[in-house]
Write a structure and sequence with these properties.
By secondary structure, the chain is of the alpha/beta class. It folds into four domains: 8-184, Rossmann fold (3-Layer(aba) Sandwich), CATH 3.40.50.300; 196-279; 288-364, no CATH class; 372-470. The chain has 18 helices and eleven strands. The two termini are 28 Å apart. Bound molecules: zinc ion.
Length: 489
């Protein structure tokens, strides 16, 4: 079923928001099927009441919370008839939410914060699982609207459907024929939240969150402690509903939908989250530095040895090392040099001389002029580096398998997320292959036999087939997965 193609991340986010009792906001143009999405998710909840309202600056509390009860007024009481309105709904979609007037805002904030509604003297427990907010754009600076925005933990930016066929489906399909494959009882959702509370969080997830917080602060993206706490609870619900025994680091990939404030921060957040989650604590940066240093050291050592005879044509000084020519040139800029090669002498100005020496060195590179002792030092260095690279390679391979297993278990990741996480991991293995190339260069520069361990060829093939689980692109297939978890109880 191709319901809501291109909306995979939003659908999974909506469900996770409902299961964890958080609110979700969609920023974007009207006509992006938000109402349908919220309604269909509500249909999947047993006995779920759906409330849908398009706010304008003229909307009154009556329209959201219910009309005043005349009977109560006769008894001098100010009470609303809340049946069928926001205070009795399980899922509510409030379109153009930032148009809410101050008369609505106060009660709305209390409902969003505490799931309570003050109806006259009575405080009513609101059964609300999740509010879906929608808006074209973020509000201008306004304290109470900012407070309202802060109540939405999940944040998505919707754009128009890109694919022609998907667009046609959206236009010409009758959306009323959606039949939810599952009815989740509200009680099961509460149970899920309860058992999620006790789920342990893997230590690497703690590290990722601490690193992420530091990183975002440097970018002046501030997240309140209250928000961080909610984030952890959502990750626990995500792990619990995926049937995991602990919150593993792939759950942290979901943070990309919770921690941005401005839409332009999204891309950055996503990038940082992926890097932190995928790195798995293995850094290839130090190895790269060492390989490059070794290459530089070898070329300096080689360059310094002159394999030809060079004499200053102006003052007759003879040179053994390249460094000596450089020093001489700095002191006597206008001197030219005689280079004797195969019994032939030729005079060069300094710049041309350097170029000539380089090309000669390159040609004789394989029979380097380094002493045996020098070669041995280099050889030891290279061997130790090759050994470390080999060990990191093995770790990366093990790590990839682990990451793949975790990703497969995590039901909340979109196909795109799965692909990208594994591709990011693989890009680091490709980097290691680059190190091999540098090392082969050093070997051949020094005239040494390459003793590298070839990378396992099976790895390259593995890289090509990124394993992605079956499509999760419909509400129903999601519900089935979640349903099977809930039914286990
Ligand atoms: Zn000279």
């Amino acid at each position: 079923m191709s319901y809501f193609k291109e909306r995979e991340a939003e659908i999974s986010g909506s469900l996770l928001a409902v299961l964890s009792g958080e609110n979700i906001i969609f920023l974007g143009p009207p006509g992006t099927a938000k109402t349908q999405l919220a309604k269909n998710i509500c249909q999947s909840i047993e006995g779920g009441n759906f409330f849908n309202y398009l706010l304008t600056s003229f909307s009154t509390p009556e329209e959201i919370f219910g009309p005043l009860s005349l009977k109560a007024l006769e008894e001098d009481e100010f009470r609303r008839k809340i049946e069928g309105c926001l205070p009795t709904s399980h899922i509510a979609l409030l379109d153009e939410i930032f148009k809410a007037s101050s008369a609505i805002l106060n009660s709305l904030l209390t409902i969003l914060n505490e799931r309570k509604y003050h109806n006259g003297k009575e405080i009513v427990d609101v059964p609300l699982l999740s509010v879906f907010g929608a808006s074209n754009e973020l509000p201008e600076e306004n304290e109470s609207l900012e407070a309202l925005y802060d109540r939405f933990l999940f944040r998505y930016r919707l754009t128009y459907i890109q694919d022609d066929e998907n667009f046609r489906n959206l236009l010409f399909r009758n959306h009323d024929d959606f039949k939810p494959s599952l009815n989740i009882p509200v009680l099961a959702i509460y149970e899920l939240r309860e058992s999620a509370k006790n789920l342990p969080v893997d230590p690497d997830v703690e590290l990722i969150i601490i690193e992420l917080r530091k990183n975002l602060q440097l970018q002046e993206i501030y997240i309140s402690d209250r928000r961080w706490k909610k984030v952890i609870q959502v990750l626990k619900v995500a792990a619990c509903s995926s049937g995991c025994m602990a919150v593993d680091r792939t759950m942290a990939l979901l943070l990309q939908h919770m921690l941005w404030n401005l839409p332009e921060e999204r891309e950055y957040l996503r990038k940082v989250v992926f890097e932190l989650v995928v790195s798995g604590g293995i850094s290839t940066e130090k190895l790269r530095q060492e390989a490059e240093d070794l290459h530089a050291a070898a070329s300096i050592a080689l360059k310094n040895e002159l394999s030809v005879k060079v004499i200053c044509d102006s003052c007759g000084e003879e040179f053994l090392l390249r460094k000596e020519i450089e020093t001489h040139h700095l002191a006597h800029k206008n001197h030219s040099y005689t280079l004797k090669k195969d019994g032939v002498s030729q005079i060069y100005p300094y710049d041309n001389l350097v170029r000539e020496i380089d090309s000669i060195n390159e040609a004789v590179g394989k029979k380097s002029t380094l002493t045996l002792a020098q070669k041995e030092v280099f050889e030891k260095e290279i061997e130790s580096l090759v050994d470390r690279i080999r060990r990191v390679k093995c770790r990366l391979e093990e790590e990839r398998e682990l990451l793949r297993i975790l990703i497969e278990k995590n039901i909340w990741l979109s196909i795109l997320d799965r692909k990208e996480a594994l591709m990011l991991h693989d890009s680091r293995s490709i980097e290691l292959v680059e190190f091999d190339t540098i090392i082969s260069k050093v070997y051949s520069m020094l005239g040494l036999e390459s003793r590298q361990v070839k990378p396992k060829s099976q790895f390259a093939e593995e890289k090509a087939k990124i394993i992605v689980t079956d499509s999760l692109s419909s509400v129903n297939s999601f519900m089935e997965k979640i349903g099977s978890r809930l039914r286990l109880k």
